[in-house]
Amino acid sequence: MTREGVFEAQDVDLNSISARYGSVDPHERRMAIIALAESADASGVELLIRALSDPDAGVRRAAAMGLEQFDGLRVAQALASALLDEDESVAVAAGASLCELRAPEAASPLLALVGHERSEVRAAAWRGLRNLRVDSVLEKATEALADPNPHVRRESVGVLAYFKREELLPALIVATRDDHFEVRRAAISALAFATPEAVIDAILSRLGDTHWQVREAAANLAAKIRADAAEHALIRSLSDEAWQVALKAAHALGRLPSVEAIPALGMLLSHPVSNLRKEIAAALGEIGRPEALPYLTGAVDDPDPDVRKIARWSIHLINSAP
């Protein structure tokens, strides 16, 4: 029942802790539950579950946090019930512990909550289901992409993404056009398991998204899967108003590698953001063509030591090429 490697089990006197938990002082009860959680003793799970019904919210929160190191149906049922706690901090703690579940049997009590009237409960249930990877969630997760709440839609994207299955691509691609940027960003990031040909239209579309974080995610996806067909769009992204987008585009162009991008990359070695200059210098080295040397030679005097180091490395890489 315990999750190995999370806590180191300690000797614990359950009778003593149970007696301490019987105190009328909520502080004493909370400290008893904390001590029990720190012991990582599976024999104390039932007391932790019992403490989820304590009249004091601080005790209930400690119990919900303590259950994160345990797994199985009984724990999942208790934490799922705690998601409905009237105290928000208890519900949040229960949601965090649910994310640590790995036992497939833990899915059933969470699936029972994905249709709950409160959107925060639905979102937390999907978040807990993400790591379980049980096929029984697929149909409902796909349906949840149409949930009225964007946080629920984002979490359902996360569930589908973990399966990395080709048959789920159409639903995920549709989600890249969601009304909410967080859903679009999650969906475009979820396509990293696909072939470039299958998702190139989604990449090109999101590189022109209205929100910079979505454009950044699209450029990052292009880098991960080496989407050659996005080369020209990525070169245009080097002039994006958000330097973070330009950074990911530079990384992608370096990985392709894109000889055509060398002039546009070289011009950015004078950009005020040093993190971007570092990525530019690295990308020019990855491209590995002598046309990049004039730009890199100027960067060896960059005010940032990391930029200077990478520029020298890139020059060496190019000069050492056969």
TrEMBL record:
SUPFAM superfamilies: ARM repeat. GO terms for molecular function: oxidoreductase activity. Pfam families: HEAT_2 (PF13646). Catalyzes the hydroxylation of the N(6)-(4-aminobutyl)-L-lysine intermediate produced by deoxyhypusine synthase/DHPS on a critical lysine of the eukaryotic translation initiation factor 5A/eIF-5A. This is the second step of the post-translational modification of that lysine into an unusual amino acid residue named hypusine. Hypusination is unique to mature eIF-5A factor and is essential for its function. This is HEAT repeat domain-containing protein.
